[in-house]
Amino acid sequence: MESEELNQQLLDLIKGLEQEGLVDDKFRLCHSLKEVSSPFFFAELIPTFLTDVRTVVRDMTITLDQSIMDYYVMYEYCIKLRGSATCIGACRMKIACSNLRQAIDNKSKDGCLLALNDIKNEYCSLQSKWDTIVQLEKTIVSYESKRP
């Protein structure tokens, strides 16, 4: 498969994610930054984001499991995750974080649990699709590095 075909396939995947409402234009902007900074930028950015989400979600789960929940700590995690989701263009994750923020403001442990569950669901939706994008991106970079 030619490099141009692979790039088109990647752009079509991104467009599909936009149409599903999983990502916004910032995701496409992050993809375009690879040409400025490094060909591996995008392929490294996605796994880093996903790892950070897993870590924050784990820490949120631990905080929610405490008998007396620290809403300030949950707020800190929420802000961190929402900021990361906003920067990479994970708009549905950003909305889920806004719902968590509302639950935190209301000091509702049940609301926090529901919102965290939504965040986990959004993570699962993104992970499988983004893993495909990362593999395709690595194939493109590898193919282009072999060209004369």
TrEMBL record:
Gene3D superfamilies, alphabetized: HPT domain
Presence of keyword Cell cycle: no
Keywords: Cytokinin signaling pathway, Cytoplasm, Nucleus, Two-component regulatory system
Protein role: Functions as a two-component phosphorelay mediators between cytokinin sensor histidine kinases and response regulators (B-type ARRs). Plays an important role in propagating cytokinin signal transduction.
Gene Ontology cellular component terms for the protein in this record: cytosol; nucleus
Signal peptide: none
GO-annotated biological processes: cytokinin-activated signaling pathway; phosphorelay signal transduction system
Protein name, per record: Histidine-containing phosphotransfer protein
Location of the protein in the cell: Cytoplasm, Cytosol; Nucleus
PANTHER family given in the database record: HISTIDINE-CONTAINING PHOSPHOTRANSFER PROTEIN (PTHR28242:SF63), PHOSPHORELAY INTERMEDIATE PROTEIN YPD1 (PTHR28242)
Entry text on domains: Histidine-containing phosphotransfer domain (HPt) contains an active histidine that mediates the phosphotransfer.
